[in-house]
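Q: What does the assembled structure look like for these inputs?
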Amino acid sequence: MTDGSDLPPLREVINTYGLRAEKSLGQNFLLDLNLTGRIARCPGSLKDETVLEIGPGPGGLTRAILAFEVSHLYAIEKDTRCLEPLKNVSDAFGGRLTVLNEDALEIDEASLLPEKAHIIANLPYNVATPLLIKWLKKRELFKSMTLMFQKEVADRIVAEPRTKAYGRLSILCQWLCTVSRQFDISPQAFTPPPKVTSTVVKLIPRETPAYPADLEILEKVVAAAFNQRRKMLRASLKSLGVKPEPLLEEAGIEPTRRAEELSVEEFCKLAEAYRKAQ
Ligand code: SAM
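A:
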């Protein structure tokens, strides 16, 4: 059989290979097949597509992805204890799974992936945001990213202006991708249960960013504005080292407004004004 149907249940895999969850690796395993299937369905049809999974662990989500007839799944797992059980998953699916025992922060996705890929992952929470930022910067490699975060991080990714969660992550993600909250998963669904609710978010990289701006300059302007998010922009933007008022005027933004009131488009206008002023 090459459809994984002869694989043992995930709980048995965890016991056989002694996969006691390691906190330092952000290990909270998802063993509910309904949920792993639901996550793997988020990108849409995966038939003949290439997929990248980060942190397959005992392989629950991995099996769900493979069951959707992907052409190949590349999985990056740091924990050597998981390699043998994952080898069994690869054999059970006719070798359509390649597992690399590496740190996902270090890998070079461009040389690994043969074509544009979907990322699907129940991310280790301690490195989830740096991984997302890394992928945003090489977004041309990806068709979609279906990622599970702590709910609080997911809230920041999809946040609208004038909300507490709105900030640097919201602006960067929404500028470069269309973002949508998929669904929440309660702590009890995991082994062991984490302290917080998790949320699956889907990001689809845009062909071109939503508005013209230079990434580094935009990041600088957004950082300056949100480092003092309660202050008016005419004060918070002083840290850019130029007079804020002419920049704000050029961008058509009232100097008394605050960072969290500005739309992504307004931040891009501000970044363009700053670029021209340099
Ligand atoms: N995908 C599995 C599931 O849903 O049950 C496990 C998810 S668990 C939240 C995160 C996984 O990422 C663990 O298997 C952990 O060993 C792995 N991991 C942690 N840090 C990593 C890193 N820097 N690079 C690659 N894998 C990592």
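Residues 264-277 form the longest helix (14 residues).
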